Structure formats: C-alpha cells, structure tokens
C-alpha cells in the first residue's frame, strides 16, 4: 500500500481497510493495558482471585476517566476533518489547538476528583470486604497517569481523522509492549502485586502520550500541532462538546453500567457474589477486547466520512458508510465464532480455578451473544457523529444504555443475580435494529441539506 492517503480520491474498499485496520488494532492493543494486568494479577499466588475481582471493579472507574478524552478527541477531530475537506486549514488548526488545551484542563480537573473520592466510589460500585484493599491500591497508583491517558487518547483521534491511523497505532503498540514487559517485573520481581501493575501501566501511558505528541507535532502530513493563540475558543469548545457528547456518553455510560453490573451481582449474588464479580471481571475484559476494535473500525473511517461530507461528495459518503458497516459486521461475526469455539480456553488465560472458568465461560457467551446487531449500532452512531448529526447519534446512544439499565435493575430482582448478564444482549439487539432503520431512512436527507461547518 502506498504511504500517502488521499481521502478524496483513493478507492474506498482498500482505503477504508487502510484507515480502520490500524485503528482497530490500536483499540485492541489499548485494551491489553488492562487485560495484561488482569492476566498477571489473576495468577498471583493465594490472593489471585480476590485481586482479579478488585481490578475488575477498579477498571470501569479507570475507563470512566479516559472516556473524557473521547469527549474532546471524537468531538473535535471530525470538525477538523470537515474543515480540511472544505479547504479551511486555519480553522482546522484552531480546532486542534483548542482540543489540546481542553485535554490538559480536563486532566487537571479529573485527577483530584477521582483520587480523593476513590474509596467511597469503589465501595459504592461493587467492592467487597475481600477485595476493596486491592482495588484501592490499584486505582490509587493508576490515577497518577491521568494526564498521560487523557492527552494520548484524545490527540490520537486527531491523527486518525487526518488519515494517520498507522502513527496512532505505533504509539499504542509501543506503550502496550512496554506494559507487557514491565508488568511481571513490577508485580513479581519487585513483589509489588496490584500496585506494580498500576505503576507499569502509568509508565506505559507516559510513553504513549510522548509518542502521540511527537507524531502530531513533527510527522502529521495534513496538519501538525503548533502552539498558538486561538480566536473564538468558546465557540470552538461548544462545537467540540456538541460533537463529542454522543461518543462520550457511549464510553462513559459503558463504564457506569459495568459498575452497576458489579453492584447488582454484589446485592443479589449472596454467597456467590465474589465468584460472580470475579467472572464479571473476566467477561468485561473480553467485552472490551471485542468492542474496542469494533469501535476502532467505525471510528477509524470517521475522518473519511467527515472529509468528504465537508467536500460535499454525497456518493462517496454513502458508499464509505456502507463499506464500514460491512467490515464491522464481518469482524463481529468472526469474534462471535471465536468465543463460541474457545470460550473456556480464553477464560483460562486469567485463572486456573475450575469453578471460575466454568462460570465465566457460561456467561461470557450469553453476554456477547448479540455482537452482530451491535456492530450495526456502532457503525450507524459513528457515521451520524462523523456527519455532525448529534440529534441522531445522542438519542441512539442514550437509548441503548437506557434499555441496558432497565434490564439490569429489573431482571436480577426477578430471576436472580445471574440474569444480570442478559442485559447486554437485550440492549444490543434492540439498538441495532432501531439504529439501522433510522440511519437508512435519514441519510439522504442529511446529505441533501448539508450545513455550513
């Protein structure tokens, strides 16, 4: 494949693959930060199961922190791409600079909030007497990396949306390889346990932030970051927040709902609560490993849709959206097949406890049963976001979460704690159908009344 990417003229099938594949790999590798931690932690002698459950409880909170980078990253990068497509390079540069300032501000605000309230948050969201000490220790050290997480993840979208997804992938891959090497050193060699896993993650995230900044300042082809004064910061900020609200809600509420899932398992699980929470930690790991690359496929081509929307090329936008949806469905089908064939082998990566393996494998298949319909939801919502149609993307995102929430708080009270795992497939099936109908009945109208950007 040629090195340069032409968002306006390159053939769409290979171009979508060229954009989405590195982004999907980046997202898969990003998940390995937490999954590698859990794999090593689950095999710590004596305390492995309790420590694994603890990290599973802490991880939704760490995901909630990083979700704020999505608000700025996926909020501003489509606007930047639209402006590049319409020839407004100065406007695109103003958006990029504003995003950097907002990411720095967010990291300064979020760190003290989560750090000083970490214990009550963990207690409220599912930690038990058996695991809260490990959860608190892991979260305390992990939060020191908040600025690195926010800046790295946020600016990565500005690389991806100008066709530089391979550079974003290199930054993430380098950081994850560092984490894989550092984890056993800090956890076992230095005997730091869960604290060591968190420290290794912080160091790796610092490396990712450095590389991402280096690429966007020195190596980006269409637009490089240059520190400057920006006119109209309030106006640009408002537009970034408006565009980013939908993807932010998707990620943030995912974290909150995973926390609620642990809480429901704690309340209704009775004597099996710790077993179910440990299984939930493993299931959530695979859920992230499946869903994040799916989001990478659809988000990786957002810049392509935004750029050609800005250039007013309706035919190219429609064809690209269809290709992205095809890639997403193929990926989801492959993941479902792998889970069905190798569920127990995958769970054994985290634990050798036969009861945990059996329980986790059973509910893993149930939890992920509707990943094909959710592939449609992801591609539709991300396409709406790329076109600036928050009035569609936001209700679709909220609707799925609402269905999940209703199922999660009602099913366990009627059918027992284990039925909480049915909430995900119920929400996935419903939202996939609704979003597809809405997307294909509204796309032509959206393209015909293209607004100024």
Count every beta strand, where a strand is a DSSP E run of 2 or more residues. Answer: 0
Number of DSSP helical runs = 16
Q: What is the helical fraction, as a range of percent?
A: over 70%
Distance between the termini: 32 Å
Structural class: mainly alpha
Instruction: Kindly provide the radius of gyration, computed on alpha-carbon positions and rounded to a whole number of angstroms.
Output: 21 Å
Described by strand count, sense and barrel closure, the largest sheet is: none
Query: Approximately what portion of the residues adopt beta-strand conformation?
Result: under 5%
* Rough outline: globular
Structural key phrases:
globular, 16 helices, single chain, 453 residues, 82% helix, mainly alpha
Describe the structure.
By secondary structure, the protein is mostly helical. Helices cover 82% and strands 0% of the residues. It contains 16 helices and no strands. It has helices spanning 12-42, 48-85, 89-116, 118-124, 132-142, 146-160, 165-189, 193-219, 233-268, 273-300, 302-310, 314-347, 354-367, 371-386, 390-415, 423-448. The longest helix has 38 residues, at 48-85. The radius of gyration is 21 Å and the shape is globular. It starts with 11 loop residues before the first helix and ends in a 5-residue tail after the last helix. The model has no long low-confidence stretch (mean pLDDT 89).
């Amino acid at each position: 494949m040629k090195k340069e990417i032409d968002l306006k003229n390159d053939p769409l099938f290979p171009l979508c693959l060229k954009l989405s594949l590195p982004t999907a790999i980046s997202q898969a590798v990003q998940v390995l930060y937490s999954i590698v931690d859990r794999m090593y932690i689950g095999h710590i002698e004596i305390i492995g199961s309790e420590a694994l459950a603890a990290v599973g409880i802490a991880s939704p909170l760490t995901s909630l922190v990083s979700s704020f980078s999505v608000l700025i990253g996926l909020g501003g990068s489509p606007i930047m791409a639209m402006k590049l497509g319409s020839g407004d390079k100065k406007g695109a540069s103003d958006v990029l600079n504003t995003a950097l300032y907002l990411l720095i501000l967010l990291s300064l605000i979020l760190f003290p909030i989560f750090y000083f309230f970490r214990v009550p948050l963990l207690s409220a969201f599912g930690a038990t007497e058996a695991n809260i000490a490990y959860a608190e220790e892991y979260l305390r050290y992990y939060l020191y990396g908040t600025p690195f997480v926010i800046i790295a993840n946020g600016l990565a979208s500005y690389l991806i949306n100008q066709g530089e997804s391979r550079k974003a992938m290199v930054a993430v891959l380098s950081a994850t390889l560092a984490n894989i090497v550092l984890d056993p050193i800090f956890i076992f060699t230095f005997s730091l346990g869960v604290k060591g896993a968190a420290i290794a993650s912080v160091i790796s995230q610092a490396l990712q932030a450095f590389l991402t900044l280096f690429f966007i300042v020195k190596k980006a082809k269409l637009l490089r970051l240059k520190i400057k004064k920006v006119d109209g910061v309030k106006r640009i900020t408002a537009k970034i927040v408006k565009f980013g609200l939908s993807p932010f809600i998707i990620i943030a509420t995912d974290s909150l709902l995973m926390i609620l899932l642990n809480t429901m398992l704690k309340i209704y699980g009775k004597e099996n609560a710790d077993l179910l929470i440990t299984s939930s930690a493993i299931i959530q790991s695979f859920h992230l490993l499946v869903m994040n690359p799916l989001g990478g496929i659809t988000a990786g081509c957002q810049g392509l849709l935004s750029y050609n929307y800005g250039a007013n090329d309706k035919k190219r936008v429609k064809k690209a959206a269809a290709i992205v949806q095809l890639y997403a469905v193929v990926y989801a089908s492959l993941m479902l097949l792998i889970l069905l064939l190798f569920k127990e082998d995958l769970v054994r990566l985290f634990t050798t406890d036969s009861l945990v393996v059996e329980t986790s494998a059973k509910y893993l298949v149930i939890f992920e049963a509707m990943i094909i319909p959710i592939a449609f939801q992801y591609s539709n919502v991300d396409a709406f976001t790329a076109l600036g149609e928050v009035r569609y993307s936001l209700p679709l995102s909220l609707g799925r979460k609402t269905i999940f929430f209703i199922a999660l708080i009602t099913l366990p009270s009627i059918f027992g704690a284990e039925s909480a795992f049915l909430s995900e497939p119920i929400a996935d099936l419903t939202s996939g159908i609704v979003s597809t109908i809405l997307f294909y009945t509204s796309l032509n109208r959206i393209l015909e009344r293209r607004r100024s950007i």
